[in-house]
Amino acid sequence: MKIALLAICAALLSACSSTVVGYGSQLEPIPGSITYGGQPRTRLTKAPVGSIVPHQFFDNFGHRVYETYIIEPDRSLRLTSRRIDYEVFND
Q1: pLDDT in tens, the chain (91 residues)
Q2: 70, exposed or middle or buried, with CB in 10 Å at 0-12, 13-18, 19+?
Q3: Which pTM does this prediction carry?
Q4: What order of strands is seen across the sheet that includes strand 64-71?
Q5: Are residues 17 and 86 in contact, defined by beta-carbon separation less than 8 angstroms?
Q6: Rounded CA gap, 52 and 86, in Å?
């Protein structure tokens, strides 16, 4: 009985309102990402290499997406993490 209860609790916790993707896996840009469709034409020339660039936007389904990029030595951006907030707020 305790094992079944633990399994149910684990399933409920896995269905939380946000998801973190990344940290070791290769992320692909999605529509709204800075690097979707390739690297941006303008380079971040004043920011030091290794700087973190946060970015947030709404995806096609209205979910808020938070992404983190790191500036590479060639001044390109590497997508390192993505968090999607699935909560729906009605204002």
Answers
A1: 656 544 554 444 444 444 454 444 588 999 999 999 999 888 888 889 999 999 999 999 999 999 999 999 999 999 999 999 988 665 5
A2: middle
A3: 0.67
A4: 18-22, 77-85, 64-71, 52-58
A5: yes
A6: 24
* Both structure tokens of 81: 């993490």
The SS3 call for residue 67 is strand
Phi-psi region of 17 (alpha: psi -120 to 50; beta: other; left: phi over 0): alpha
**Which pair of tokens denotes residue 90?**
């009605």
Query: 28-63 burial, b for 16+ CB within 10 Å, e for fewer?
Result: eebeebebeeeeeeeeeeeeeeeeebebeeeeeeee
